[in-house]
Write a structure and sequence with these properties.
This protein is mostly helical. It has six helices and no strands. The longest helix has 21 residues. The radius of gyration is 24 Å and the shape is globular.
Amino acid sequence: MATSSLRAASRPDAPTPLFATPPWRSCPTGSPRCCVRRRCRRSDRSRSPLTTRDRRGKFLTAALNDELARVTGSGAHEHNNALYYASVALGQLVAGGELDAHAVTEKLTDAALSVGQGEREARRTIASGLRAGANRPRQVAA
C-alpha cells in the first residue's frame, strides 16, 4: 500500500505533498522514526537562519515605519485622521506589550510635527488613538 502512494506522488498530475522535504531530513540522525517519536533533542535539529526574535523585531519595525509613513504621506486635510488611525494600530501593539508607549508617542509626535500639525492637537490625537487601540490588544505571533 505504501508503494502505490509513493508511485502516485511521483506522477506529474499527483497532488503536491504537504512538505517539500520530509521533516526528518533536517534531523542529524536522518531517521524518520527519530523525529516522529521525538527521540532527538530539539537543539540537535537544524534551525532556519531566521529566528523568531528576528522576525518579531522585523515585524514591529515594519509596523512602526508603515504607520509613520501613513502620517507623513497623508493629504493636506487628512493628517489628523491618519495620525489617529496610526496611533490606534500601534496602540494595539502597545497594549499587547510589544511596543513602548512613550517611544510610540514620541515618534508619532515627530511625524505629526513634520507635516505641520500642532503639538497639542497631535498629542491629544495620539493619546485618544492609544486608548482606543488598548481595547483590542495585539501581540506578534511566535
